[in-house]
Design brief:
Blueprint: E1 4-11, H1 15-23, H2 25-32, E2 34-36, E3 45-50, E4 59-68, E5 72-77, E6 94-102, E7 107-114, H3 121-148
Antiparallel strand pairs: 1-7, 2-3, 3-4, 4-5, 5-6, 6-7
Helix pairs in contact: 1-2
């Protein structure tokens, strides 16, 4: 089984615009559908509440890893941690990385989520499958977001 999700999308917006959509916690919340408690800070935990229909009971918790302006934004989290009865904190989190590259027409956004091989085997496949589909949708969401709000 593959242990890395990879998505790429070409956005018709400058790198600075895409960077803002990714790292301004309010903007991130709009397209990702999560209400975050405060700004992203490297090395700190980001908390909030998912607002995606059907998943409103899910809490958002991620540890911001890197914020290299207009190049790399990354965080770790517990993928598809949607069962309130399960304590996911003992699991090794996956690493989500957003890389930005300038192109002639805008920005190439590369997303990778790695580390699924460390997820407990009983939920590894489902976590991978759900996040693979989820990221496909989120790439469309950020594309719409930067197109609609320059």
């Amino acid at each position: 089984m593959n242990s890395v999700i990879e998505k790429r999308i070409e956005l018709k917006a400058p790198v600075s615009r895409v960077w803002r959509a990714l790292t301004d916690y309010r903007e991130f919340g709009e397209w990702f559908r999560v209400k975050l408690d405060g700004p992203f800070v490297a090395g700190q935990v980001s908390r909030g509440q998912i607002t995606y229909p059907g998943y409103e009971h899910v809490k958002w918790e991620a540890v911001v890893q890197k914020m290299e302006p207009e190049r790399l934004f990354s965080f770790t989290w517990h993928p598809y941690g949607i069962d309130p009865k399960i304590d996911y904190s003992k699991e090794t989190p996956t690493l989500v990385e957003f890389r930005l590259e300038q192109t002639k027409t805008g920005t190439l956004l590369l997303l990778t989520e790695s580390g699924f091989d460390k997820i407990p085997s009983d939920r590894r496949l489902e976590a991978f499958r759900m996040n693979d589909g989820g990221w496909t949708e989120q790439m469309k969401n950020i594309e719409k977001h930067v197109a609609q709000t320059p």
